[in-house]
Amino acid sequence: MRFATLALLCPALLLAQASTPASTPKERQNYVKSLSKEGQAGIPKLLPYAQDPDIDVRREVIRTMVTIGGPASLEPLTQALADADEEILIRATDGLVNFYLPGYWERGLSGSMKRAGSRLMSRWTDTNDQVVPPHVEPRAEIVAALGKVVSGNGPLPARANAARAVGVLRGRAAIDDLVAGLASKDSKLLYEALVAFEKIRDRAAAPKIHYLLRDLDEKVQLAAFETVGILKNPESVTPLREAYERARNDKVRRAALSALAQIPAEASRPLFTAQLDSADESLRAGAAEGLARLGRAEDGPLLHTKFEAETKMRARLAQAFGAALLGEAAMGEFDPLRYLVNTLNQKAWKGIAEAYLIELARNEPIRAAIAPVLPTATKQEKISLSAILGRSGAAAGAPMLETLSKDPDPEVASEALRAIRTLRAVNP
How big is the CA angle at 272 (ends 266 and 277), to the nearest 5 degrees? Predict the structure, then answer.
């Protein structure tokens, strides 16, 4: 008989079992903690204590369950998401994600959680770029349970943490729960739900968050711009243009233009053209990106000219991207594409260069231009290009990755093999 059924039919029996090894809550906590030494064999012994009337015992069960880990921990951790306690909800959530993304428990909210008396303190970070690899498929019941936490009436920090988890797991089945969570009006939950939408990449979700483009919390508003841009829904162009025109400050204006630049629409051309010579470097960058994605080859020479004259890094990278996207696939010393590849060696800017190259690497002429220079590329360029080719999703990039997987440097070879797995997951 499964534990869940036993718990429903015989709670008195479970409590009796829980009190057998020790009679006081502190003794039961110590016993539960000691079970971590037994590994997987300790999980069945933990199960009765998940129903203990003492909240500290139940919290210790979750901590021990996550410490042990493994497939056998998934069902009880999922069941723990029905608990009303904030700490249990947060730790169970992070424990579930940790199974699919090892190390998440330490880096997530649980890793910073401390208790001062009855007060739970934890340190939220804005670093929320973790996501499971494409070949990882979380159990449907786990995504559903996390979605219920997001849309439920539990503690807001636990709901926000569950929204983050849904994004990390790419839980597409929980999209409706994320939308329902937006009704909370809690800024942290709104922000985490928006980032989750970005990771799931369901274009149909964009219209459901357009109203957040006007949110009074600037952090939420900026996240909404980024999310809508990433989702690339053509229906978003008009509300984004309206948001650009009523922007309260330069930061909001830049975010609105950057989002518009993600969505090709000829209606945006006059705006991009007008901002190509803006005094604001970020607006120049957004304008170059937007113009490039409109796809007119005749705009290529203009962006190349801007690239050659530009003195600011952010704008110059965008102009290089634009020129390459519109047909400049040469890899000469001073060519735009070469400039992007060279920038992979610069820690401060390689993230932006990687994002541009992921988009560019979906095009055969770009891959054909990069392939001959792989043997002479730097170690960092090889590592980054491996990740770029994998994340581009272009199956035709596999031969280049096969070459990199045989590189004498083990770090390069390892990254290339990881990228091959990613490509295979996208193109089975």
Answer: 155
- Kind and range of the H or E run holding 119: strand 119-121
Are 306 and 288 in contact, with CB atoms under 8 Å apart?
A: yes
Distances (CA, A) of 31 to 12, 60, 279: 20, 10, 66
What token pair was written down for 12? Answer: 């008195």
Q: Which residues pair with 120 in a beta bridge?
A: 115
How many CA within 13 A on the CB side of residue 45?
A: 18
d(CA 249, CA 28): 57
Looking at this protein, which amino acid is placed at residue 281? Answer: E
Calculate helix-pair angle for 313-325, 350-360, nearest 10 degrees.
10
Where does residue 297 rank: exposed (0-12), middle (13-18), buried (19+ CB within 10 A)?
A: exposed
Contact 358, 422 (CB under 8 A): no
Structure tokens, 71: 């497939």
C-alpha distance across the termini of the chain, in Å: 38
Q: What is the pLDDT, as a whole number, of residue 114?
A: 76
Nearest to 90 by CA among 141, 166, 161: 161
Contact status, residue 401 vs residue 416, Cβ threshold 8 Å: yes
Residue 302 pLDDT greater than 90, yes or no? yes
Q: Per-residue pLDDT tens for 205-216?
A: 999 999 999 999
Q: Which residue has the tokens 């608990």?
A: 83
Phi-psi category of 39—alpha, beta or left, where left has phi over 0 and alpha has psi -120 to 50? left
Distance CA 411, CA 383 (A): 7
Beta partners for residue 121, in sequence order = 114
Q: What is the pTM of this model?
A: 0.87
* Cα dist from 85 to 89, 95, 149, 380, whole Å: 6, 15, 12, 46
- 84-97 tens-digit pLDDT: 999 999 999 999 99
